[in-house]
């Protein structure tokens, strides 16, 4: 009986493989968490040095409009006002989302509700192609096409918020479109059948039923596109003008957090005020990405509760 009992109590090969798989999965998750925590710690330690090492006031850093870390103002305070870059980042992000959302939702409705076969055959490859284009190509096209057109139509240099908005609009359009398509496809078919059985037209069904049922997914797509636009660096840097000034209009040169970072991080000495101030901008970007992720999760929970 002892050998039989030992054989029955012995773990099978499948159980050992499952335990090994769980261990590997736990190690991978732990590694990911460790990398994320390390990134947050590194950026935060560098970014906060501006305030506890260089004695820069946080409120002044967020609200002042002069960005010249190598100089000081009349009160002897370093001129590290990040407000122009913060405003520029939010302006190009919001405007790009406002322009891209109607086109993305319209294309998604066409691909899912109006002409699924033709839409999937034509529009889907186009959106996938737009996703695969490098950002430097978008920036170069914006520099050679968008900027001259804006200069001819509105005057000035052509660089500014409007040029950045046009470039970001094209860049986030495929992302918002693909996620909107998934959100519309997730609406159960019987919603449409029930609406048609009540006598609603196709457009009434789309507007009153499908779009409202897919609203959490559509909002998630828009916020995800905004997060993509907020963190874009190279393409925006090539067309926005890179002037750390408060934008007075849409065609005046401006700057974003990412454009100032990419231009200045390689020209500063580690540990200096100039370098610490740039890391503070990077910390703002990191915190904003966290905010976007939290908003996406909140929208997803709201949609799950309603459904």
Written account of the structure:
α7 packs antiparallel against α10. The chain contains 13 helices and two strands. It has 307 residues and is an all-alpha fold. It has one domain: MetI-like (MetI-like fold). 76% of the residues lie in helices and 3% in strands. A two-stranded antiparallel ribbon has the order 1-2. The protein is flat and about 80 Å long. The chain starts with a helix and ends with a helix. A hairpin with a 5-residue loop joins β1 and β2.
Keywords:
two-stranded antiparallel ribbon, MetI-like fold, transport, 307 residues, membrane, mainly alpha, phosphate transmembrane transporter activity, phosphate transport, transmembrane
Unreliable sequence segments: none
What is the spatial order of strands in the main beta sheet?
1-2
CATH superfamily: MetI-like
C-alpha-based Rg, rounded = 25 Å
The count of β-strands is: 2
CATH class: Mainly Alpha
**Helix proportion:** over 70%
SSE run:
HHHEEHHHHHHHHHH
Number of domains: 1
Briefly note the structural class of the backbone.
Answer: mainly alpha
CATH topology description:
MetI-like fold
Shape from CA axes?
flat
Distance between the termini: 56 Å
CATH architecture: Orthogonal Bundle
Largest β-sheet summary: 2 strands, antiparallel
Into which percentage range does the β-strand content fall? under 5%
Number of helices: 13
Mean pLDDT: 87
InterPro entries: MetI-like, MetI-like_sf, Phosphate_PstC, Phosphate_Transport_Permease
Family: Belongs to the binding-protein-dependent transport system permease family. CysTW subfamily.
Membrane topology: Multi-pass membrane protein
Protein name: Phosphate transport system permease protein
């Amino acid at each position: 009986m002892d050998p039989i009992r030992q054989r029955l109590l012995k773990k099978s090969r499948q159980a050992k493989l499952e335990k090994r798989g769980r261990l590997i999965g736990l190690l991978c998750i732990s590694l990911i968490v460790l990398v994320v925590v390390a990134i947050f710690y590194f950026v935060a330690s560098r970014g906060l040095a501006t305030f506890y090492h260089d004695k820069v006031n946080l409120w002044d850093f967020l609200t002042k409009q002069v960005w010249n870390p190598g100089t000081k103002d009349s009160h002897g305070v370093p001129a590290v006002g990040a407000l122009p870059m913060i405003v520029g980042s939010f302006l190009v992000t919001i405007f790009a989302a406002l322009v891209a959302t109607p086109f993305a939702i319209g294309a998604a409705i066409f691909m899912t509700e109006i002409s699924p076969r033709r839409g999937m055959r034509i529009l889907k490859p186009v959106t996938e192609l737009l996703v695969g284009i490098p950002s430097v190509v978008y920036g170069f096209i914006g520099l050679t096409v968008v900027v001259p057109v804006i200069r001819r139509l509105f005057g000035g240099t052509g660089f500014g918020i409007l040029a950045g908005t046009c470039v970001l609009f094209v860049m986030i359009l495929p992302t918002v479109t693909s996620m909107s398509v998934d959100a519309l496809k997730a609406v159960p078919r019987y919603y449409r059948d029930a609406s048609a059985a009540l006598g609603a037209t196709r457009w009434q069904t789309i507007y009153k039923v499908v779009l409202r049922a897919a609203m959490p997914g559509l909002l998630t797509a828009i916020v995800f596109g905004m997060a993509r636009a907020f963190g874009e660096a190279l393409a925006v840097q090539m067309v926005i003008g890179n002037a750390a000034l408060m934008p007075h209009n849409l065609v005046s040169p401006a700057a974003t957090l990412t454009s100032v970072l990419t231009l200045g991080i390689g020209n500063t000495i580690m540990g200096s005020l100039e370098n610490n101030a740039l890391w503070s901008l990077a910390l703002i970007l990191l915190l904003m990405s966290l905010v976007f992720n939290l908003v996406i999760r909140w929208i997803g929970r709201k949609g799950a509760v309603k459904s």
